[in-house]
Amino acid sequence: MKLYFLRHSFRLLAAVPTYARLPALPCLLLASTSPLAVAATTPASAQSVDTKHIAAHHSTAMPRRQGAAVPKASPEQITVTRSHAQRYLATPGTVNTISGKELRSLHLESPKDIAAFTPGVTATNAVSGSAPIFSIRGVGLDDYVGTNMGGIGIYLDGVFAPFPVFYTGQMLDIESVATEKGPQGFDMGRSTTGGSINIQSVKPSDKFGGYAEWGYSSYNTNRGRFAINTPITSRISNRLAFNYVKGDGWQKDISTGARYGSQDLLAIRNLTKFTIDDTSSLLLNLHYTRDKGTSTSPQDIGPVSSGDTGMNPSANAVSVGNAVPQRNENGGGLSVNYTKAFDFGDFSSTTAIDFYRRDDTDNYDGSAVHIADYRWNDTAIAQSHDMHLRMNPTKFFHLTVGVFESYDKIDGDYTSDRMQSSSALALDNHFSQQNLSTGVYVNTVTNITKKLDFIASGRFSYDERGFNGGSRYSEIGANSPRLLAPYNARVGDALTGVNERHDYHRFTGRVGLRYQIVPGTYAYGTISNGYKAGSYFAAPVLAAGALDYVKPENLIAYEVGIKSSLLHNRLEVEGSLFDYEYHNRQTLFFAPITTTENSLTLGTIPRARTRGGELSTTLHNLVPNLDIRGSFAYLDAQVKSPVNYINGLSLDPAVAHNSPLPFSPRFSWSGVARYNIDIDSYRVTLQASYTWKDNMWAALGDPNAKTSKISSLGLRMEVGPKTGKWTAAVYVDNLQNNKGTTYSFTGSDNNRAQYIQTPRWVGCELHYNF
């Protein structure tokens, strides 16, 4: 396999001179910025941008230079994340971050949960939970199957996660989560069109310490977590983190009384840091997660007599039948990050390999009659390597050069029950999908004047996509001699099939200007273009064209914005306006085959456009003991090229000009307020949080795919000594017990199937630091 990678790496390098003769400059001028994360400040006395540190923000563990002082801080202090934030204020692009402390206080347990408090981001589960769909500013990939990467790159400690199953596990012992907006891939990782979400765990330190936590909440849910930091020698330190959740289901079957949506989650991670010398270090990351909970079920809005949940079911009512939804997932892997500091710059190399095994049963149709239940049975492997050198050749010129390579493969057997009566049959897709990606990237920052910087970046990407699989009827009952509609096929007959490979290469780039208005306040403007590789649709489908290859998508992004951190970091403001031109947007379509049969498929929209703006503000202790954080986003995402046919399937109704794009809520906003009350040697913290997202579409061409408006109010009270030795808290999420529809679609019986947001959740927790 290594020879395979080397062969294609050399092919990539050999191709560069050929494409250097193409009109690269116009391509380079189509570019933007997507810096990682978050606003905060450089020192007020700084007269120029510390671009070297800004460029180095993706490094997992930066070594110190010989003789340099090493700042020490407890990983439990929010100052850790704020120090990161201070390096990113000058980044010319929108970045939103959430600290580990905020994650715990808001009960954000998985990557998809951060969407509620990140402007312009949506995330939802289209099935039982293994395939979360992410979208940033309407850019994503609404594929519920889980074999495809969307337009968003998810990075866990600097390691790219190509399939959704790799980031469905719990986030444990997290330092920060940073969301970058716009095309990415110019200073690390794989090329993406919409942005990236970067999750960083707390790293080992040379001090013994840690914490233990226990919580109890609604539906008999117990949670236990701990992290312990242990210095082994003067040059070796270790951090072990653990999280376990066990709880009953909140859904109830209307016929059997059985519970669904239960939790049984385990996650563990061990980080070991080896300090080689004063200029280099190595970080070893070992991790494992497993999920044996019970899948949630949608509601099928139809008559109870036909096995559905009724026309007006209660929020927790489901109709499942005898095929019990369940989840049996586990996976893990390791990564090694090596960093080396030279006099002229810093070098970083991250190599990783991950595995994941999934065998889930999903009541996808929401009905007790098994006409569209799914079994997701697959195994995924992902290997990646990213290395880059960040340096300052001159006082006014800062350069990052790097290379990224990844290989990922998923082998699956997806089965959809189509009927259960005297003739029982299932539609099965057995497939193997392989992806190879390589890329060479360059990022430069030139100080034109003391306050004005010019940013120019470029990337050359080479990708291969291969798919071998197809659908066939896999089982049948008593009436096996008869032919089966709509294709008059018998069991075992191949209905659809694809065995092909596509390879392609693209050059993307960005340019921009960044201007320091006053110390701590920057304005910027960028142009960028992003590209996402092609994909395949791996669901078991009746229509032959539904498995056709979906060609790559392209995005040109224009963005202007301003960032400011004033009053010694007490006031932080970040605002931006953007305009995206989308070409060949990959998306999910709903297409009827006959009057009683329909199919989902992936296809492209030739042209689409997204415009909008975002604003986020943080007020820290402007009023003594009060912290306020708020965000607002506006999004106008529309189809600009009507679509009547996809992969030979006729859309009814067709997708019209100016139709809204999927997962693009027009308005969304959130707010968090915390107030501290000191009583002698104790501190009481009161917190209120609120999120609201407009309704949006989940698929094109499907009249039932529009969600409702989603809102949630949370309250929390925490008490503990001012020393922070321990805290005790009580909380409630979704206080109003809202019952919004988070995802909906037309089921195989042509009824509306819908997932409902989690109900009111009340709990308490004890946290002890040692």
UniProtKB/TrEMBL annotation:
Signal peptide range: 1-39
Domain of life: Bacteria
InterPro entries: Beta-barrel_TonB (IPR000531), Beta-barrel_TonB_sf (IPR036942), Plug_dom (IPR012910), TonB-dep_rcpt-like (IPR039426)
One protein family per Pfam: TonB_dep_Rec_b-barrel
Location of the TonB-dependent receptor-like beta-barrel domain: 284-735
Alphabetical list of SUPFAM superfamilies matching this protein: Porins (SSF56935)
Any one cellular-component term (Gene Ontology): cell outer membrane
A biological-process GO annotation: iron ion transport
Membrane topology field: Multi-pass membrane protein
Keywords tagged on the record: Cell outer membrane, Ion transport, Iron, Iron transport, Membrane, Receptor, Signal, TonB box, Transmembrane, Transmembrane beta strand, Transport
Protein family per UniProt: Belongs to the TonB-dependent receptor family.
Protein name, as recorded: TonB-dependent receptor
